[in-house]
Structures are given as C-alpha cells and as structure tokens.
Amino acid sequence: MNQGIETxxxxxxxxxxxxxVLGSLIVLIGALGLVRLPNFYQRIxxxxxxxxxxxxxxxxxxxxxxxxxxxxLVIHELLxxxxxxxxxxxxxxxxxxxxxxRDLRAAKRDREPESDETYPCPRKK
Length: 125
Known about the structure:
The chain crosses the membrane at residues 12-35, 47-66, 78-100. Pfam families: PhaG_MnhG_YufB (PF03334). Keywords: Membrane, Transmembrane, Transmembrane helix. This is Na+/H+ antiporter subunit G. InterPro entries: PhaG_MnhG_YufB. The protein is mainly α. It has one domain. It is 78% helix and 0% strand. It has helices at residues 2-6, 10-36, 40-43, 45-70, 76-111.
C-alpha cells in the first residue's frame, strides 16, 4: 500500500490533505469546547455540532483517497457518513434530555421537606 501513496497524483493529495486538516481542526475545536465551556448544556454543543462536520470532512477525504488509489469509485464511506449524521444528533439530544430530567428531579428533591427516615418505606399493598 505504500507504493500507492508514493505514486498518488498531486490533484488527489492536495484535497485529501486539506480535508483531513480541516476535519481535524473542527474536531479539535469541538474537543476544546468540551473542556473549556462552563456548564454541561454548553459543553454538549461543542462535540454534538462539530462531530458531524469534522467526521464528514475526514470521510470525504477517505473516499477521495481510496477512489484514486484503487482506480474505481469507493462509496462505502457514505454509509458511515449517513450513520454518523443520523446517530450523533440523536445521541446528543438524548444526553441533553437526560440531564434536564436529572436537574428537574434534583430541584424537586430540594423543594420537598426532609423526613426523619433515611430510606423511604416501600408502598404497602
């Protein structure tokens, strides 16, 4: 496979390199947003939004590279792209809903008067 890399034309290597660098920078910005933003709801937006664009750039670069290397159209990366584009926003939304539910339960627990019992009694039938 190294022989194919050495003989790769410049018109293929330039867009592949540009897309890989762009995708890597976008994913890096998302990771920095995950680390630097102050609360959970702001932190989840960095990876949730940038994962689709960064992953898309990397997968398009892969598709161009292997299409030129094998001299035939390679499109199996489109399946990976579709899977990432469909699952990443859904997973982010489910994580955010879980956090909202957790915060609502914590607020409800804080409003309730404290009882003397450490553990609640099970309901009697």
